[in-house]
Amino acid sequence: MNSHYNTNEALIFWIQTNKEAIHFIDGIITAYDGVANVRRDYTIKEGKTYFKVFVADGMDDEFFSIIERCKKYVPITDIVQAQ
User: Does 3.90.1170.20 match the CATH number of domain 7-81?
Assistant: First the structure.
């Protein structure tokens, strides 16, 4: 794990997408050192699959910028911050 990344200070988001897309998203986010950590943990809400992402403290703007670019290539229909 990246030394700049601390799960105690991370924000947790859930991204609604599919299994194929989460691999693409993970590959892209991995290229941005210390921004986020995409997990394969998922939950199903109202028939939709949401994957867990830990976003480093203070990197949420960068994370959302990356996700907006990813939307051009894979389906991302919802992002929810964990309570």
Answer: no
- pTM: predicted TM-score of the whole model, two decimal places: 0.85
Helix axis angle, 60-70 relative to 19-30, nearest 10°? 130
What is the dihedral sign for C-alpha 32, 33, 35, 41? positive
Tell me whether residue 25 is exposed, middle or buried, using C-beta atoms within 10 angstroms of its C-beta: 0 to 12, 13 to 18, 19 or more. buried
Condensed to tens digits (0 to 9), the pLDDT of residues 19-55 reads: 999 999 999 999 999 999 999 899 999 999 999 999 9
The owner of tokens 């830990």 is: 54
Domain boundaries in the chain?
A: 7-81
